[in-house]
Design a protein that fits this description.
Order of helices and strands: HEHHEE
Number of domains: 1
Structural class: alpha+beta
Largest sheet: 3 strands, antiparallel
Distance between the termini: 24 Å
Number of strands: 3
Radius of gyration: 11 Å
Helix content: 25-40%
Number of helices: 3
Length: about 70
């Protein structure tokens, strides 16, 4: 499981079509703060049936969208 594996599992188990998490929520779920490497690791999420939508630095949020 990768660096953000716990987060990917959480996203998959959420089951919603689309939802938003704050950077703080992501840190609590993943056990690590979100950092620049998130851009590299986000590709792993497609294996869980989701993709990263909009990442807002200003709002400090990430939108996750179910694929298909």
């Amino acid at each position: 499981m990768g660096k953000y594996g716990a987060l990917w599992e959480y996203v998959k188990n959420n089951g919603s079509q689309s939802f938003k998490l704050s950077f703080e929520e992501i840190q609590n779920i993943a056990g690590i703060p979100i950092d620049h490497s998130f851009l590299k690791y986000k590709k792993e999420l497609t294996e869980y049936g989701y993709q990263v939508g909009k990442i807002s630095i200003k709002e400090q949020t990430v939108i996750f969208n179910k694929m298909g």
